[in-house]
Amino acid sequence: MNKPASSDGTVGKALETLDMVAELGRPVRFTELLAMSPHPKATLYRLLQTLTNQGMLAYDEARQTYSPGLRLVRLAHFAWRQSSLAPIARPHLDALAAAVGETVHLAQMDRGQVLYVDKRNAVDPIEMFSQAGKVGPGYCTGVGKAIMAHLEGEARQNAINQQAFFRHTNTTLTTTEALEAELDEIRSEGVAFDREEHEPGIICIAAPILTEGGRVLGALSVTTSTSRQSLEQLSDLRPKVQSTAIKIAETAEVWQFPT
Amino acid sequence: MNKPASSDGTVGKALETLDMVAELGRPVRFTELLAMSPHPKATLYRLLQTLTNQGMLAYDEARQTYSPGLRLVRLAHFAWRQSSLAPIARPHLDALAAAVGETVHLAQMDRGQVLYVDKRNAVDPIEMFSQAGKVGPGYCTGVGKAIMAHLEGEARQNAINQQAFFRHTNTTLTTTEALEAELDEIRSEGVAFDREEHEPGIICIAAPILTEGGRVLGALSVTTSTSRQSLEQLSDLRPKVQSTAIKIAETAEVWQFPT
DNA sequence: GGAAATGGTTTCATTATTTGAAACATATGT
DNA sequence: ACATATGTTTCAAATAATGAAACCATTTCC
Q1: Looking at this predicted complex, what is its ipTM?
Q2: I need a labelling partner for A66 at 20 to 30 A (CA). Which of A41, A196, A215, B156 fits?
Q3: What angle do helix axes A9-24 and B41-53 make, rounded to 10 degrees?
């Protein structure tokens, strides 16, 4: 009886494998996967075959490499429409972006990481390179902290435990204690700031999107660089950011968005 | 020994179930799924549990409903970047859209259906998975026919066999014979037209994206309405559409896009 | 040219997971 | 309280997954 980290039978293993391929972000050969996989050759081979049959992976005959398959794009379309805040938040994000003229992000939490579900880029007519679907760390982004600050009890501990606490810059919070203190602060403050904790020169203000009952659905942020605005200037945007968050929450409530 | 359509063991069943939930496009209750599922109660129950654990489905406690989960969005991000033509085609689509001032679609084939992987809308800018990830029929869209026309032998028959041949309008092709004749025509012509076959008043011109070796990677189209342009006017765009298709193919070749 | 290595695929007896009818819970309505 | 609809758990039987090893096909090295 051995415990392979965490998995739901064969399906779990298959999906873990799919993740491995996807997160590499480039075509991979069988052998390379074998090296990082916990499974023996034959098992991995069949997992990959199954995933390929199913269109979850694409196999390039010529190069003998695997990549994530297009079936995922199709499935994600539905997920994005139904389970993300993006469709609901759209007009509000548009308005906010127009008003502040800076980059605006909309994010939700997915297994301890921040998942960006929509974005407005002030200047260029959209960096269409799929920002939706990108993931980022929770402990050193404005949206991540804003969301975590409003998680309760177990969910919060869970999220905190999943953080990597890698020191990206010298302001990055690198301990659970520091993060917890910051989250309490954010909770009472109502907004979160990213003080160059993820990337030097990049700062943001973020507000949680909270339901009537206090459940956190996601967060949104306005991001800028220290060369353009100071933290103080950013914090002047608080009313706009918060009211946008509230409007999104209200719209979600009307639409009966699942929590 | 019974043959449940087509499946790869447990993983196949799980993914089929995931598809079912996703394609309904709205939250579903257990019982509703049970009705359409080939599996007994307990089996379906556990499949759903597994998928939920894995983040492929989201379960709304309050409403007791399942929806596609956000993990899909995250996975699809990678799929879209790696396995779709969209990143490669981006500048070319931009240019074409600017030149023609009409809606431009980029599509690939996924299991007999047209999968739109990018879009330019003359007016409003795009949101990621709202357009990308959408699927449409193959037999009555310009892109669908353009792609199928350049599939060879078995692949082509396969694609044809997967068509539903539902009569959307009175110009819709509703038999394999009619479609095959049309595909031959398209192949020799080089471009495909949608003559209001899918929606009344909507017409388009589409060109296949072909590799050096004649393999079809996808197709792109310019869509308009009969109130704005006639078929004849649309066909004047042929040079622009075709040269864009060629440029995309060349870029794909340089980038070693997997076929 | 031949040997060895590399990378991918298949076999098959063993083992573990999945299965599903039925019993059990837990609401929701009468 | 009763009935009904819906969701969850049990457990022996059926099935599918496993993985060591053999196999096949290329490429690389001597």
Answers
A1: 0.87
A2: B156
A3: 30
